[in-house]
Design brief:
The structure is a single chain. This protein is mainly beta. Helix content is about 10%, strand content about 40%. The chain has a 23-stranded mixed beta sheet that branches. The chain is globular.
């Protein structure tokens, strides 16, 4: 009993409740000092020297593999993709290698699932053996993807996308390929806590691979490249530490085409990026249900800065696969604007997830249009369970909206677990149909919050 009381007191002592923006701003400055890009040996390896042909037809999987392995074995450096269109299957990125996509170069990924070997991966926050992500690394250190070239996932309604089972993306009765049966099996295996190495999918199961997934890696740098036509999630660092993503452009409107999904990762900085997506622009995650809780790694210490968001279900999103929790999430100086953007800040979870989401700082955000809500809390995103989530210490300041949607603030929470310590300061939100629709909020502070020209002093 004494140990339980001590643990409870210790947990409460660790809780943060900001009283001014200066506190999280100082935390951001300290965090920026520890998130740094890896450095690489000044030696280049052109894939052309390993047999690559950039004609858009010749398959270059072997040339990429040979160049990356040679670079790795000789102490690292840059593997250069010169101008041209290079068709390839999965690329495995090794330690101390910077895969540099030159301006004018396109890496075009094969549409043949046989070109993607089975690897240990995560699919929608669940661990399994499935097709390799298009660019993959496992337990590697000091890796990068840089350059002003193009990564083309080559997905469309006739390749990869229709596996989601939606008519909008090309699926129809009688067409082989639909993920729902396999997805249900994976959910059941996770609930039974089956060894993830025995959760084997691949051909015949239609679980789409993600685009870029470094897994359990340290010192990850992705800079300047453009990504289009992903089968599923675009950038998905899983259980990684020290991740810098900068100057990246993601334009991909397929199903579940999230722009960037840092998952159960620590010390992540996403800056100066552009997202125009078929799902959430940035979705911070930490695993689904049993897998997220059992691994117990939160999404921790994330900065999202100077980014532009266009189409998407949400601009800055936390969840829904967030069972490991999330803390210290800072979004500042971002711009969002699209009639197809649903929400600006979105926190989505459920009682099948659980987890603590805390210390979220949403600062200096300019929004043109959105459809549903500027700020959205949802504890009922998927089926209920026995693991009630916690959302606390959420600070929104200097949010400027020109053409709002249905609500300024929309919240659905549990009476037994209300959204706690929610602060809005100096926010001006115009064009909304209703100021708010909320249920269970606790310790709310509204300071100079103007909605449709009228000051909003409370949610009563």
């Amino acid at each position: 009993m004494l140990l339980a009381i001590f643990a409870c007191v210790a947990s409460q002592a660790q809780q943060t409740t900001w009283t001014s923006a200066q506190q999280p701003l100082k935390e951001i400055e300290q965090l920026k000092k520890v998130i740094v890009a890896p450095t690489f040996k000044k030696k280049d390896y052109s894939i052309a020297d390993f047999g690559a042909i950039g004609d858009g037809r010749t398959k270059n999987t072997g040339a990429f593999k040979k160049a990356i392995e040679a670079c790795n074995k000789q102490g690292g450096g840059r593997v250069i993709v010169p101008k041209g269109i290079y068709l390839t299957g999965a690329i495995y990125l090794k330690s101390n290698v910077n895969l540099h996509i030159s301006e004018g170069a396109t890496v075009l990924f094969s549409r043949d699932s046989a070109d993607y070997p089975m690897v240990f991966t995560r699919w929608e926050g669940m661990e399994c053996i499935n097709f390799s992500p298009f660019i993959y690394a496992y337990k590697e250190e000091n890796i990068a993807i840089t350059g002003k070239g193009l990564l083309d996932g080559n997905a469309d309604n006739d390749h990869w996308w229709y596996w989601c089972g939606a008519r909008k993306y090309g699926w129809h009765e009688g067409r082989p390929g639909e993920q729902k049966p396999a997805r249900a099996i994976l959910h059941q295996q996770m609930a039974q806590e089956m060894d993830p190495n025995k959760r084997v999918f691949g051909d015949g199961h239609f679980l789409r691979p993600n685009f870029v997934q470094p897994y359990l890696c340290k010192n990850v740098w992705i800079a300047d490249v453009k990504l289009i036509n992903s089968p599923m999630w675009n950038l998905n660092p899983v259980l990684c530490e020290n991740v810098l993503i900068e100057g990246v452009k993601v334009v991909s409107h397929g199903p579940n085409n999230d722009g960037c999904d840092p998952e159960a990762s620590k010390n992540v900085w996403i800056r100066n990026c552009y997202f125009d997506t078929g799902d959430d622009c940035i979705a911070i995650k930490s695993g689904r249900d049993e897998d997220g809780r059992n691994i117990g790694r939160p999404a921790e210490n994330h900065i999202i800065e100077n980014c532009e968001m266009k189409d998407g279900h949400g601009g800055v999103v936390i969840g829904s696969e967030i069972a490991g929790g999330a803390k210290n999430i800072y979004a500042l100086n971002n711009v969002m604007d699209s009639p197809n953007l649903d929400r600006a800040l979105r926190i989505k979870t459920s009682s099948s997830r659980g987890g603590i989401i805390e210390n979220v700082f949403f600062y200096n955000t300019e929004v043109g249009q959105y459809k549903e809500a500027a700020v959205r809390f949802n504890m009922f995103y998927e089926k209920p369970g026995k693991h009630f989530p916690t959302i606390r210490n959420i600070w929104v300041e200097n949010l400027q909206v020109k053409g709002g949607g249905k609500y300024a603030v929309l919240s659905t929470a549990y009476e037994s677990s209300p959204v706690t310590d929610f602060t809005m300061v100096n926010c001006k939100i115009d064009g909304v149909k209703e100021a708010f629709k909320v249920d269970y909020l606790k310790n709310v502070s509204l300071k100079n919050v103007i909605v449709n020209g009228k000051e909003l002093k409370s949610f009563d």
